[in-house]
Fold:
Amino acid sequence: MKKAVYMAMCSLLCVFWTGCTQKDNQDKQAASADEPQEEYLFPFEEVEQFTLDKGGELLEFELNQANWELEDGGATLIEQEQVNDKITTLLKTAGVPAETFNPEKGTELFKVITAKDTVSFYKEHDDYYGITGQGTYKLSNFDVVSDFSPIYFNGGALLAEDTEALRRVNFSTATKEYFITKDKGTLSDVETTPFISGWYLHDYFKTPRSVEYYTMERILKSAVLLPSHKINSVPSGSDMLSPISVVFEYVDGDDQQFSIVAYNEAVQSYFVEYQNSLYEVPKNVVSVFAKEGLQLVDRFLYILPLDAVTAIDIQRTKGEDYHLLIEHDVTQSVLTSSFFLNDRQVDEEAFRKTYQYIAVLAPVSEIAPSEDDLKAAVLSLKMTYTFLSEGESQTRTLLFYDTGEKNTYLCELGSKEYFSVSKQQLDDMLNEIQKLSDN
Structure:
């Protein structure tokens, strides 16, 4: 009897939830039907030829055995695979109807002329639009549109034969001079282990810092080939910049220098001076050289491979102190480690998970505090790392000060470098260590 009642209740619940689910699905479908549907701007499978028109500069492309090529037979600046990818992505541009867009309030980027239609691309603020013979669309996949320049296909200055020839990049601005090189400077071998680019920023901070991998990849590509188009003068409406001088030093001594002098938002291009001539360069190529400081480097306060760490001491002015100890033992080339928190052995997996919260501490911004700021700052926490590098024990200290800021601490590294650090991130770290202690 109980089983029959239970089965009946289950059946009723199933009917109830099925009905709710069907109604929810119907409501979602009705709402979806009311929303504008995304449409392709081109019949991309049918397009075999098109003309790119940017400000009257015309480039004609044709599809030849699955490869997009210039009709005049000219060589493209970027590799064939990149050409195919850019054009295929462009021809698959999609958007939703946006008839309220007024092209007079936007900036025309370029036109694509096919046998059946002309599509004009515009930018207004941070939004991108396409106008076809069928209507106006707000673009949903606009990345390629924002960086689709004829310069990629028909312009460029060859600076070196390959990236191996580059040995150093020098930067000079109105206020600072710094450089990038493979020399790790004062960093120990262990301190460079977590980083993969193999290049280091010098003279910007008080100690060298590793250049972020993808940032360095962009720099290396430009050090070989700078996509550019020679022009006579900077277009009107451009923003003149305080010049940024960039010098590529190569192993053969044939150094190359260019200076970034202006930027134009409408055409998404920088303008550079190179060998006494002026060139237009796509924004995405040159913007990496306009980055400064923390935008260039791996964004960690201080990170070490855990297998090299022997201790981390955390002393707090309020709350419990923590002493993390790691004992390493090598037997027949096999490393084994034991992990302790406040003299109590803890699980290795749990310890490694907690260490991730220590490793990812990141600077929010650079700070140059005045003497009065430092006098007013109150020490909140001190972290001391002890680690082995090349058989020697070394220590590094981080000090965190409360300056009255709601969301950040002032962090002082051992070399009197100062950064702001998120209070929330530090609290998360301390909470994870406390969880490890409680288990």
In short: Confidence is low (pLDDT under 50) at residues 1-25, 27-31.
